[in-house]
Amino acid sequence: MRGVVAAPPRGRPPSASAAAWSSLFLLLLSSAISPRGAGAFSAQAPIPGARPAATAVPAPPDSSGNPPGERAGDGDDDGGGSDDAALRRMQSLHRPVASSFAPSEFDPHPALDNRHLQTIAGVYLRKDPDCAYVSDSGFGGLARVLGATANLLRADAKEARAFWDERVRVESSCERDFYTVDVKYAGERRARYHSAEGEGLVILIHGLESNSNASLSTDLARSYADQGFDVACINFRGCCGSGPNDTLGGYHLGFTDDLRHFLSLVKELYETDVGLEKRPIYLSGFSLGANVVVKCLGELGESALILYNVHGAAVTGAPFDGERNAKYIDAPGFNRAVYAGNFLKTMKKRARRQLDAFCDGDPSTPLFDFPGAMTATSVGEFENAFIARVYGFEDNVDYYRSTSCYYYLPGVAVPLLIVNAGDDPFFDPDFFPVEEGVDGGGLAPIKMVRTGRGGHLGYMFHRWNSDDGALDQPNGTGRSPGVHVSPLEQRRWCT
Q: How far apart are CA 89 and CA 79, in angstroms?
């Protein structure tokens, strides 16, 4: 199956489809869901009382294969979710919106469609225009890609830091730690997270051991800003690059606390500054960040729109089920040596730093299994020794079953686009829960797209042709070709 690529933007395009289809999906939502949509819904039914965050979540099986009791999310229970009838009403209203997004074709150069090449090139070559779209499908296009590898190890962290307009340090909800938010404004800054010209705010969540300076973070943010959205990228605790965080933990696969806290801060901003026009909020994320976004939406249910004005989300590389995926990321051979090995290197460094900062450097600390973490040869072993112990899970299996976003899909109430690659080396290739989305008969307004190629967050070397639009076509707007028309008309770029 192929899917999802939108017209490349004017000038230097954001690489591959991840940025293009996400921005177009959010443009569709900005027109299809009125900024007064939350009020309209609440007029049909009063805002319901709070319920446990995961009432609509199908419980995972326990070790015996029997389903346990309902699980609540591990974020703050601050109004997330409500009764099933209200949830179903909002899902019914939003299903047509999610269904209306028609993905187009991701067609990588046939010599460059290997899943590992896609995955690794997505990290190192994403910013090179000759690797984003290949206009010559023959040897000429391939030669330009090979030429770009000369800059493979070029350090661009300084360029990434310069990309963002503002960094904000935010005290966490527990008031004992902090996270940082990097902001890109679509126009002239009027207030924090709000530009004069902005059509809404996109909250972006990065992946495991990543941050706002990652190529995909800036790629997505650039595309959103080009389409008129302000962007706020949350750096998980300890990931901002300016030093360690202030508590033993940091974040994990299902850590929605900081996202929910930030949503409450933005809500408070609009409530206290009466001069600001209330604008819609959108969520976006990749890999681990995609899991956090989807889980958060499932926890909040219709409260995502009613309480926090979240109108929808677009994510890529959603893990769905950590328990299923563990044996793939840790598979002997290339995956364990390259992918798991790279993650373990930074995760062990973080564990050593946390031991020194919060456990007096004592390797026998009861707070987590430090020897087990240091001798781990797989991500699963490390998560069993460190993540599970620090956050109170029984073991890494309990951690996966408690936090994987698959179990939260039925609780999603606002339009959500999920795009994964069928050849993603991190994930179980036989598991893609399309039955939970609009194309598989699910109740939630989720559009799921699975491309045949793309690797993990790659989507590189797309073969551009005239049907995709012009690579460098001035339109007087400074945005992608066609963005001068209404957002609903943008669907023509995705058909």
A: 18
Residue 455: pLDDT band by 50, 70, 90 thresholds? Answer: very high
Is residue 143 within 8 Å of residue 158, measured between CB atoms?
Answer: no
Tell me the pLDDT band of 209, cut-offs 50, 70 and 90: confident
C-alpha span between 100 and 417 (Å, rounded): 11
pLDDT in tens, 157-187: 556 568 999 999 999 888 788 999 999 999 9
Please compute, for residue 99, the number of CA atoms within 13 A of its CA located in the half-sphere on the CB side: 14
Please tell me whether residue 310 adopts helix, strand or coil conformation: strand
Task: Report how far residue 231's alpha carbon sits from residue 182's, in angstroms, rounded to the nearest whole number.
Answer: 8
Tokens standing for residue 266: 């933005």
The dihedral through the CA atoms of 204, 210, 213, 215 has a sign that is negative
Q: What's the CA gap between 81 and 303, in Å, rounded?
A: 6
Hey, is 77 helix, strand or coil? Answer: coil
Q: What's the whole-model pTM score?
A: 0.83
The tokens describing 172, both together, are 């966490």
Burial 210-242 (b: 16+ CB within 10 A, else e): bbbbbbbbbbbbbbbbbbbbbbbbbbbbbbbee
Q: 149-153: which pairs have CB atoms within 8 A and are 24 or more residues apart?
A: 149/125, 152/124, 152/125, 153/124
Strands 281-286, 310-316: pairing is parallel
Which residues, in sequence order, are CB contacts of 193 under 8 Å at separation 6+? 181, 183, 201, 230, 232, 266, 269
The DSSP code for 242 is S
Among candidates 418, 489, 474, which has minimal Cα distance to 27? 489
In this prediction, residue 485 carries a pLDDT of 25
Residue 294's H or E segment, with its range, is helix 288-300
Instruction: Give yes or no for a contact between 405 and 285, defined as CB atoms under 8 angstroms apart.
Output: no
Structure tokens given for 134: 């290949």
Our measurement of the distance from residue 80's CA atom to the centroid of its chain's CA atoms, rounded to an integer in Å, reads 20
